[in-house]
């Protein structure tokens, strides 16, 4: 089979961005490394404006109509992301997660009408979520600096590199059904809107009610991501009961 031109582009982008990350190492002790804070804050303001103008409004419509009635959108989007998770689990040496996600994709693509219905979950094949950012962490690449990415939100240099590779090197192009390939991007956007409606109160509190929404979003993202990867949490959380309580409540709603 001929190699898609996406493969060398993805690998080239990964090599370039990994080189950038390697040159931007966070201070020891799990501190917050944010040398781009002035630019990040501008991007955060842009993202918040997009949320207020578009995403929040669409999420309110979903919430009014009951987010559960749109679960099929989330199911389809999640199922379309599974081939990429299989690749990443394999690259991480996690054969069990790769196998579970493979079986889950096959069951839901066939019995679940392309992924609209989740039959695999009740059968014991729960999604083993992973991405190329986690793959880079397993390979030993440092987190790098904190970034706020336009439209995508909080990230790090390592995770931004991973997001780009996941976007450019998507095995769904070869393994998915025509409807999955055609509608996966739209379904991902729909999933964001559904989740925005489901978590409306929590996200509104973070973005519009907190004294410094940028700092709180940064703290919550780094706390959750480092927890996922088994890395030290930000020191603003360690030993600070008020920060610990706020972030724990936020993560309970947003991520866990």
Order of helices and strands: HHHHHHEEHHHHHH
Determine the strand fraction and express it as a percent band: under 5%
- Mass-distribution shape: globular
As residue ranges, the low-confidence spans are: none
- Tally the structural domains: 2
Radius of gyration, in angstroms, nearest whole number: 19 Å
Structural class: mainly alpha
Number of helices: 12
Q: Which sequence of strands runs across the widest sheet?
A: 1-2
Average pLDDT figure:
87
Helix content: 55-70%
Features:
single chain; 256 residues; mainly alpha; 2 domains; two-stranded antiparallel ribbon; 65% helix
Descriptive report:
The chain has 256 residues and is mainly α. It folds into two domains: 35-198, no CATH class; 200-256, no CATH class. The chain is built from twelve helices and two strands, in the order H-H-H-H-H-H-E-E-H-H-H-H-H-H. The longest helix is centred in the first third of the chain and has 29 residues, at 37-65. The radius of gyration is 19 Å and the shape is globular. The chain starts with 5 loop residues before the first helix and ends with a helix. The mean pLDDT is 87.
């Amino acid at each position: 089979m001929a190699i898609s031109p996406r493969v060398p582009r993805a690998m080239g982008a990964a090599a370039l961005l990994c080189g950038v990350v390697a040159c931007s190492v966070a201070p020891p002790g799990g501190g917050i490394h944010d040398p781009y804070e002035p630019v990040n804050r501008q991007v955060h303001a842009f993202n918040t404006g997009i949320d207020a103008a578009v995403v929040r409004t669409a999420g309110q419509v979903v919430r009014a109509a009951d987010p559960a009635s749109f679960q099929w959108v989330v199911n389809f989007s999640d199922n379309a992301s599974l081939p990429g998770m299989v690749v990443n689990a394999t690259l991480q040496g996690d054969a069990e997660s790769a196998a579970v996600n493979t079986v889950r994709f096959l069951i839901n693509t066939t019995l679940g009408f392309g992924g609209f219905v989740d039959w695999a979950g009740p059968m014991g094949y729960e999604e083993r979520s992973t991405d190329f950012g986690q793959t880079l962490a397993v390979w030993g690449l440092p987190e790098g600096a904190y970034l706020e990415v336009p439209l995508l939100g909080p990230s790090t240099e390592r995770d931004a590199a991973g997001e780009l590779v996941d976007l450019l090197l998507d095995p769904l192009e070869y393994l998915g059904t025509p409807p999955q390939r055609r509608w996966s991007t739209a379904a991902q956007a729909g999933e964001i809107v559904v989740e925005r409606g489901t978590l409306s109160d929590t996200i509104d509190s973070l973005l519009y009610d907190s004294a410094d929404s940028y700092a709180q979003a940064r703290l919550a993202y780094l706390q959750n991501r480092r927890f996922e990867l088994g890395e030290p949490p930000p020191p603003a959380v360690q030993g600070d009961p008020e920060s610990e309580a706020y972030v724990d409540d936020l993560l309970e709603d947003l991520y866990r």
